[in-house]
Write a structure and sequence with these properties.
The chain contains 9 helices and 19 strands. The protein is an alpha+beta fold. The strands form 5 sheets. Strands 1-2-6-3-7-17 form a 6-stranded mixed beta sheet. β18 and β19 form a beta hairpin. It starts with a helix and ends with a helix.
């Protein structure tokens, strides 16, 4: 897997380099024998995905779908696209997020392909997760009808021990526009301050979402952008804009559409539109397939495995959107999206063993 990871890291698969993502997918496709596997490179709006399934099977409706992404955020310098191994760590852009796990998924599929009757699984690798996933997993689910019975998404992990994520917060980015009336700053009562209107409305929305509780399964609201066309302090601004990033749990709303409508009704004085929407992932901890995955992991690791939640989102949200249950996990590593990104090589091997144990029992 180290040799494979070295080759994967060398592909500069950033959002502004879609053809490099395609070349990477062509390389991965070449690793699979045509008589055993069926590989398809998909494209939507210049973004690429790769489907790998066993020949003769319905790739879009497997019993279990393995999922991950091949794109990375841009590196600060070219040296990060060359793998460096020091002891149990491998350094390079995308090692932990998530080309290390791509190597694992590829090796697992190839191993299963050696068996006379492989399990009913498929592998989907997307090329746009870091920019939202709309044209990757979103396209596959919404337009191609990809509908597995269960998804194992390998885009979790980080600097914590192995755990299985069964809950991810939903995402709603809201663009807020307040319109007022321009006047001279010395006669402010003659105007209608758009920034004041905007701030008052944002405070109402924040109270609706609720106070932030650190590292809790609770909705949060972040004011990420606020701006106005006003360029001078002695002028009442007539226009102001803000963007809110709301991460919501099922207690606040079941869908991003429901949440957006509630906020529109809460602040009718603003023009409100959604810039990005993502469904929340919520899989009951007693889900039988989730429990089987947990049992497999515990069998390999020799210890109890935590079922946890995550504040951020993965491509699993698109499958949650159509009611497909998912489990998210990943490798141990650190410095995601930063210089010195690394992955623990032992964790990659353990994850390979966990997946094989789980898939062969399914």
């Amino acid at each position: 897997m180290i040799n494979l990871l070295e080759q994967l890291i060398a592909f500069k698969t950033t959002k502004d380099n879609p053809q490099e993502i395609r070349r990477g997918f062509e390389f991965i496709s070449s690793l699979f024998n045509p008589g055993v596997f069926n590989t398809q490179i998909l494209e939507k709006n210049g973004k690429y995905s790769l489907f790998i399934s066993f020949d003769g099977r319905d790739a879009f409706k497997p019993k279990i779908l393995l999922n991950g992404h091949f794109d990375v955020v841009p590196a600060e310098d070219e040296s990060q696209y060359k793998l460096r191994v020091e002891g149990s760590r491998a350094y390079g852009r995308g090692t932990v997020d998530m080309k290390g796990m791509v190597a694992v998924l590829v090796e697992v599929m190839r191993e299963l392909g050696k068996r006379e009757n492989p399990p009913d699984i498929a592998l989907l690798l997307n090329g746009d997760e870091e920019v939202g996933g709309e044209n990757g997993a979103g396209y596959c689910v919404r337009e191609l009808g990809v509908n597995p019975k269960f998804v194992v998404c390998a885009d979790g992990g980080g600097d914590t021990p192995f755990r299985i994520v069964n809950r991810e917060k939903g995402t709603l980015w809201l663009n807020l526009v307040a319109k007022g009336r321009v006047a001279h700053g010395a006669y402010s009562w003659l105007g209608d301050n758009a920034i004041d209107k905007l701030i008052t409305a944002i405070q109402k929305i924040k109270e609706f979402v609720g106070a932030t509780v650190p590292n809790a399964w609770k909705s949060t609201c972040n004011l990420g952008v606020i701006e106005t066309d006003n360029k001078t302090p002695n002028k009442v601004p007539g226009l102001a804009r803000a963007v809110l990033d709301i991460r919501f749990t099922e207690e606040l709303a079941k869908t991003p559409e429901e949440l957006a409508q509630r906020i529109i009704e809460l602040a009718p004085e603003l023009e409100i539109s959604a810039l990005e929407k993502g469904s929340a992932l919520f899989v009951p901890a007693d889900n039988p397939v989730l429990q089987e995955f947990k049992k497999s992991a515990e069998g390999v690791l020799g210890k109890e495995v935590e079922i946890a939640f995550e504040h951020g989102a993965t491509d699993a949200r698109y499958f949650a959107e159509i009611g497909v249950s998912c489990a998210v996990f990943g490798a141990v590593g650190g410095n995601m999206h930063a210089e010195g990104e690394w992955v623990n090589l032992e964790s990659l091997e353990l994850n390979r063993q966990i997946l094989l144990k789980f898939l062969l029992a399914s």
